[in-house]
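Thread: Newbie trying to understand structure tokens

Hi all, I'm a second-year student working on a class project, and my supervisor (Dr. K.) asked me to get a predicted structure for one chain before our next meeting. I've only ever worked with sequences, so writing a 3D structure as a token string is new to me. If someone could post the tokens and maybe explain what I'm looking at, I'd be very grateful. Here's the chain:
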Amino acid sequence: MHNLPMTDDDEGGSQVLRVSATVTVPEAARLLGIGRNLAYEIAARDGEIAGVSVIRVGRRLLIPLARLLEVLGLDDDSTRFEPKR
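---
Reply by user tm_fold:
Sure, no problem. This is what the structure looks like when written as tokens:
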């Protein structure tokens, strides 16, 4: 499993470490270099994006980050992914 630290500011303005095993469709779209709308369209239609199965949790669509990085050839343990929020 990958240790891919991501940080957010908490209410006091200090950095909080957050690690997630999945990314959202817009985050996956940025990694893939495609638009958000196209990514949602593909994920909803095919149930996968870039060959990675989409996990549906209620209405949310989530993509396993480790598998997506593997498909992109970025599955090295030193890889850091910090999406813009």
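A couple of things are worth pointing out once you decode it. The beta strands are 6-9, 15-18, 22-24, 48-49, 52-53, 55-57, 60-64. Confidence is low (pLDDT under 50) at residues 1-5. Feel free to ask follow-ups in this thread.
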